[in-house]
From TrEMBL:
Organism: Paralvinella palmiformis
Pfam family membership, one: Glutaredoxin
GO molecular function, one term: electron transfer activity
GO biological process, one term: cell redox homeostasis
Organism taxonomic ancestry: Eukaryota, Metazoa, Spiralia, Lophotrochozoa, Annelida
Superkingdom of source: Eukaryota
Signal sequence bounds: none
Domain (Glutaredoxin) ranges: 3-61
InterPro entries reported for this sequence: Glutaredoxin (IPR002109), Grx-like_ET (IPR051548), Thioredoxin-like_sf (IPR036249)
Official protein name in the record: Glutaredoxin domain-containing protein
Length: 75
């Protein structure tokens, strides 16, 4: 399973998402889009959004910290 979180340091929902994955021992890759323009552009291509977090679970994109949708995609 491949999980990518596009985030920024000041985003409280990003912090909640990362905490959720850590508490559930679910590995993820994090990209700080405030420091990585290439990843920011990648995030916008995937989601059509500039807001964070954007979470990619096996190619399926979630905008925001939507725990219900995350759990559905993790099944």
């Amino acid at each position: 399973m491949a999980i990518i979180i596009y985030s920024t340091p000041a985003c409280s929902y990003c912090t909640q998402a990362k905490k959720y994955f850590r508490e559930n021992r679910i590995p993820f890759t994090e990209y700080d889009v405030s420091k990585d323009q290439r990843r920011a552009e990648e995030m916008v291509r995937k989601s059509g959004q500039t807001g964070v977090p954007v979470i990619d679970i096996n190619g399926r994109t979630i905008v925001g910290f939507n725990k219900t949708e995350i759990e559905r995609l993790l099944r």
